[in-house]
Amino acid sequence: MDPANRPPSIDRLARDPALSGLPEWIRLTAARRAVRLGKSLGESDWVTLAREEAERLMQAPIRAVINMSGIILHTGLGRARLAPLAQEALEQVSNNHATVEFDLESGRRGDRQDAVRELLRQLTGAESSLVVNNCASSVFLTLSALAAGGEVLLSRGQMVEIGGAFRMPTIIESAGCTLREVGCTNRTHLKDFEAAIGPETRAILRCHTSNFRQTGFVCQPTPRELATLAEKAGVPFFDDLGSGCLIDTERFGLPHERTLTEALQDGADLVMASGDKLLGGPQAGLILGRADLIERISRHPLARVVRIDKLSLAALEATLRLYLESKELTIPTWWAASRPIAEIEKGARWLASRAGATAIVDEGTTELGGGSLPEVGIPTWRVGFTGPSPDDVLKWFRRCWCPIIGYARDGVAWFDPRTVTEVELELVAELFETWRNENGR
Q1: What is the C-alpha separation between 327 and 308, in angstroms, rounded?
Q2: H or E stretch including 161?
């Protein structure tokens, strides 16, 4: 290597005036990254690269982005976006002391579950409920409290693996239960469950196949059949519903998704669901059903371990109130799902006009995501960039001061405006225009 192009020492680069005033760890980390990323650079280029890396490090690791990924409930982007009312509730509770576990009437300690329990009772008809920090916790806590030391029956066709390689069989076994596999991968009959029930059976579990769909030569017992069998055998039936849906999805042109109410009406002793999927609220795990079982679960030591925090509780309560007041279309998940296709097309064409000659507009599909209604989508219009490498285009927009998240398909970088608000649309248009100016198109 030419000595003139040899990288400076990390210490010298970190002490450059261009990095002055920054925390030491930022300066040193930026210098190390610059030396690792750079090749044959001049002195000023090393410093510029180090400064760019320092600016990236100074940004908060969790940042707001504009979701144009074609997925409404994008797990990597935090799933459900909160409704304005839920955002206000978060601000109130985070900026002030709050009645999380305090009864204003008596002046004594209260129960943080009371308000949400009543809302869920009104919305679903559940005898009682317990809310924890996520759906996996709700399953784990339920099994630990009610089935530990015995067998849990689960169809082989429902032994799902969720994100991060967490598997339902592992959760069952970690809860102190023995997994009893029932039926075959594609076909499980009620008679298979009948044959599997024995003296060690503690529960029958049904797990919603939230992130995949089985088609063809397949069958599963209905939830009502499993509930009837469980009652006859004298064991509880747990229905891990997953999505937490509270309304009829067919009104949005989607296939029917079982609601929490329907799961309870089908005879489940307990129903478990997520708060940040089709419910459209914060991350939370809901357990609804028989009051006596909920009471036993709430007394288990793990109930404290997986307790919901005050911020999620406030946002969940506000979201549930919107359903009670028939204002569910103010919940961003359902707002995005219900937008007229003509409105989406108008926005896509306007964005394309700001993006230059390489931008195209085409029909597409927006997925619900978040493990809800797999392989099902809503018609949309999208903006695509042709010519440059789609990965380069997507990276450019991810590195903007306000990152935009798109997706690549068929050699095109696509951006779906269905999930974009009116304010965000203006920002996207400005950044599309900046792209056009910087790329000379």
Answers
A1: 25
A2: strand 161-162
Number of folded domains that form the chain: 3
The pair of structure tokens assigned to 71 is 């997925």
Instruction: Tell me which amino acid residue 98 is.
Output: A
Strand ranges inside 227-358, DSSP E: 237-242, 270-274, 285-289
Question: Are residues 350 and 399 both part of a single domain?
Answer: yes
b/e string for 413-430 if b means 16 or more Cβ within 10 A?
bbbbbbbbeeebeebbbe
> CA–CA separation, 179 vs 266, rounded Å?
24
Query: Is there a single domain that holds both residue 291 and residue 360?
Result: no
Span 207-224, average pLDDT: 81
Q: Answer whether 210's CB lies under 8 Å from 243's CB.
A: yes
Beta bridge pairs of residue 128 = 289
Q: What is the pLDDT of residues 158-209, one digit of tens each?
A: 888 776 667 888 999 999 999 999 999 889 999 999 999 999 999 999 998 7
At 324, the amino acid letter reads: L
Which residue is listed with tokens 């920090």? 133
Is 94 in the same domain as 240?
Answer: yes
**Cα 124–chain centre separation:** 22
Within 13 Å and on the Cβ side, how many CA atoms surround 365? Answer: 11
Q: If residue 375 lies in a helix (H) or strand (E), which one and from where to where?
A: strand 372-385
Burial class (CB in 10 A: 0-12, 13-18, 19+), 95: exposed
Measured in residues, the chain has a length of 441
Residues 381, 344 contacting (CB under 8 angstroms): yes
The residue type found at 158 is Q
Closest CA to 329 of 316, 321, 338, 342: 338
Our CA angle for 208, 209, 210, nearest 5°, is: 90
In degrees rounded to 5, what are phi and psi of residue 66? -100, 120
Give pTM, 2 decimals. 0.88
Q: Which among 354, 341, 327, 355 has a CA at the least distance from the CA of 418?
A: 341
Query: β-strands 201-207, 237-242: how paired?
Result: parallel
Residue 121 and residue 294 in contact, taking contact as beta carbons nearer than 8 Å: no
Residue type, 352: A
Q: Which domain, by its residues, includes 357?
A: 66-77+333-439
Q: What are phi and psi of 420, to 5 degrees?
A: -100, 130
